[in-house]
Specification:
The complex is a heterodimer. Chain A is 67% helix and 0% strand. By secondary structure, chain A is mostly helical. The longest helix of chain A has 23 residues, at 159-181. Chain A is globular and about 50 Å long. Chain B has a domain at 38-229. Classes of the chains: A mainly alpha, B mainly beta.
């Protein structure tokens, strides 16, 4: 019996997938590993104590991201597709104005700048160069979701994939930090990741129909933890 | 009086029509419909600094919103104009719209509060809305510290606050939200259908400083979830817009902590674009949260004015 592969699927989607994997990789060098998104304080203060509370904490972060940054990301993808830098700057200012803690702002603009610079080096599209210039000249803060949206738009990767990569990044940042900060196994974190990423498609559907002004959220204890972290004496992570 | 084409409360009436979280609550109440006399309140307060003290120079009102005169009753700040916001209906019902327009001229100093907690009653049609604009000129100082909001079960409430603040002015704005009448009925703890609270601040040239939109929908998002309310019940959101150097000192003094044993968590963060500080408090009981907000208020007054707080009211 001859075992034979049955031909090719749509080749463009295969090429797209490899791009998405590269730029959505948690090891992509933009420094996400330096942040814990509040998990470090959550563990120190006894808010997160085990796998169950870790899952709930990560879920809260994902919901907040989908209701906030995720909407800005989809709007930015549309603006980047039509090459409108002025609208990108407005979206970026709105995303930045909604980051109400120093550490959240630092994380977003640092990763956004790095991601834009990597895009210029690796992909090299004119819009990415323009955006890097805007960030360098302090015309715009350069938040991460906007950078991600521009990068995906210039590669013709759809907004839905950029959204999923963003949500995936939110999960892996927290779960990656969890492995270094608390007693939790790789099996448990992978189970949590599998469960949480399964909800991303539904979150995308809600975000995709929202207006920029609909960006909202409600996670007061996470906000308090950001304030606690900024004052902590011993810190392994930058947030 | 010839009615204007757009009454000053038009914004409060339009607020809920475009918000996605209120899309399914556009039906009119079977009782008095929204926008009728007695349901749409308006208050315009203009404070000005004249011959050594702040006076309430401009006052327009429409029931059920009202104020009486400004009192200079704070012994620690005798020039401060103190005003109590009154709603003659005593609570918020479905179809109610409130519009509040506050302006402080250069160097004016005012303290605004409400008479008692604001109850938002249960609703089976429509929603209640509140629109607020706050405008502070150079070196103005406003403490806007109303009593807590108590959303009853099945209530729907939208609040939108637009702030325009000069870089040298100070605004202290507090909002305390209870989970409901939690000792009255089990369903009253986070029993509201939707609370949507937006705040945005800008400079007078239109430059955006920060924006926050809190949407509380306990049926869609679990309130007890880790990182949201966890085991806490009462939430306070305190916004301080202040000059950068003073805001920095206040931020350093405000502190941050999570204490499950005492049932209290709080923390201050710097707002973007050097706008000031945001201070959040979570607690089991309202009294703890109010005490913490008062501590922050005390720090703000010391650093900005150099004055102490008046003694606590016995019944507040």
């Amino acid at each position: 019996m001859i075992i034979e592969n049955d031909g090719v699927e749509a080749s463009s989607s295969t090429a797209f997938l490899s791009r998405m994997l590269q730029f959505g990789d948690s090891m992509f060098p933009i420094g996400a590993f330096a942040f814990s998104s509040g998990l470090e304080s959550a563990i120190q203060e006894g808010v997160v104590t085990d796998a169950a509370t870790l899952r709930a904490f990560a879920r809260t972060a994902l919901e907040q991201a989908a209701r906030g940054d995720g909407i800005a990301l989809i709007a930015a993808h549309r603006a980047a597709t039509s090459g409108d830098v002025d609208i990108l700057i407005r979206i970026d200012a709105q995303a930045y104005a909604r980051k109400l803690s120093d550490e959240a702002r630092t994380m977003s603009v640092r990763m956004g700048k790095k991601f834009t610079e990597m895009g210029v080096e690796v992909v090299g599209a004119p819009l990415l160069r323009t955006w890097r210039e805007c960030i360098e000249r302090s015309v715009t803060p350069g938040c991460y979701p906007i950078a991600l949206a521009i990068n995906f738009a210039v590669q013709d990767l759809p907004a839905s994939q950029a959204f999923l990569v963003h949500q995936y990044g939110v999960s892996t940042t927290i779960l990656g930090a969890a492995l270094r900060l608390m007693k939790v196994s790789h099996i448990e974190t992978q189970k949590i990741l599998y469960e949480l990423t399964g909800q991303a498609a539904g979150m995308y559907e809600t975000a995709a129909t929202a207006r920029l002004s609909d960006m909202a959220g409600f996670a007061p204890l996470t906000d308090v933890l950001a304030a606690v972290h900024a004052r902590a004496h011993v810190r392994l992570f930058m947030s | 009086m010839i009615p204007a084409p757009f009454p000053p409360w038009a914004r409060a009436e339009a607020l809920g029509a475009s918000m996605p979280e209120f899309a399914s609550f556009q039906d009119e109440p079977p009782q008095m419909s929204s926008g009728t006399v007695g349901k749409t309140g308006f208050l315009r307060l203009g404070f000005e600094h004249r011959s050594g003290k702040t006076i309430l120079a401009n006052l327009e009102r429409r029931v059920p919103y009202m104020v009486q005169r400004a009192l200079h009753c704070d012994e620690q700040m005798p020039d401060l104009a103190c005003v109590f916001l009154i709603t003659t209906t005593g609570c918020l019902l479905q179809g109610d719209r409130l519009a509040l327009d506050i302006t402080l001229g250069p160097r004016a100093q005012a303290h605004l509060t409400s008479q008692s907690a604001t109850k938002i009653h249960a609703m089976d049609a429509n929603y209640a809305a509140q629109s607020q604009t706050i405008s502070l000129a150079d070196d103005a100082y406003l403490e806007f510290l109303p009593e807590p909001v108590i959303p009853h079960r099945h209530s729907r409430f939208i609040s939108d606050t637009q702030i325009c603040v000069a870089p040298s002015a100070t605004l202290l704005l507090s909002e305390i939200i209870q989970p409901g009448r939690k000792h009255h009925h089990l369903d009253e703890c986070f029993g509201a259908t939707v609370l949507s609270i937006s705040t945005a601040a800008a400079r007078s040239d239109g430059r955006a400083l920060f924006a926050e939109k809190l949407v509380i929908e306990p049926r869609r998002y679990v309130m007890r979830q880790t990182g949201v309310m966890d085991s806490f019940d009462v939430f306070a959101n305190v916004i301080l817009c202040a000059p950068k150097d003073k805001a920095e000192r206040i931020h350093a003094r405000a502190g941050a902590d999570v204490n499950f044993a005492e049932g209290l968590a709080f923390g201050a963060c710097r707002l973007p674009n050097d706008a000031g500080v945001i201070f959040k408090v979570l607690g089991h009981e309202t009294a703890q949260v109010k005490a913490k907000v008062r501590e922050f208020w005390e720090i703000v007054r010391q650093e900005i004015i150099g004055a102490a707080l008046p003694p606590r009211y016995l019944w507040r």
